[in-house]
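Protocol step 4 of 6.
Sequence for Derlin (Moesziomyces aphidis) entered exactly as in the expression construct, tag removed. Do not edit the line below.
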Amino acid sequence: MAAPKCGEKAPFGYRRALLSGRSPPPAPPPTSAGRTLGIAMDLESIPPITGAWAALTLGVALLEHTHLVSSFQLFYTPALVFRKYQVWRLLTTFLYFGPLGLDFIFHLFFFMRYSRMLEENSFGGRSGGRAAYVVLLLFAATCLLILSPLTAQPFLGSPLAFVLVYIWSRRNRHVRLSLFGLLVVTAPYLPWSLVIFGWLLHGSLRAVVGDISGIFVGHLYYFLVDVWPREFRSGGRNLLATPRFLIRLLDGPIEDQ
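Step 5 output, structure tokens:
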């Protein structure tokens, strides 16, 4: 509880504590209205692409939970997409993290955490940043869809999250992280530490094949965007340069160079 300002009359509890030599009483807990306002302000601070993706993910989970759709209608398989023209599976495979529950909450939080950090830090505050982040998601999604028949992964939300984790870890290589309160690692080792932990938890390498494919796609993006232009100065350029029309669409007008 803050001390009263000059000219203000101290509340009775505060004055009594001072006279008795005890510490002032603690501030009252926030009201339900205050907590609601805090949650609303935190939601408003979520960057738009991450927020839209999270909203779609939650919407799909609610539809499945209320039996309006089935998980069998959401997974990706080339035969149903290209022969039966069920093209929505190209998107829903990235939006389904399983039925509502603790596992779903963990996966959604995991995805939002690293998506938000990338969108705000690596892509935020620069011209065309929002469009560049969309290019990253489109590139990663396309690569994972191509690899899906090889890895036998019907749902690709977790591999996509590992793409984001890998890129964040490479761009924040000096950050130290506590892994489940058991081990401290630097950021570049985070994706592989999570893979090893998942392997030990499930007892099968097959359970983490999708996560490994996410690391592979993340490294491919990192090489094309970050390594190639830096190391090959004589002719190297960003091979995934953001189209100008997409910048105009998502970030507003741009000045011609």
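Step 6, annotate. Residues 3-24, 33-41 have pLDDT under 50 and may be disordered.
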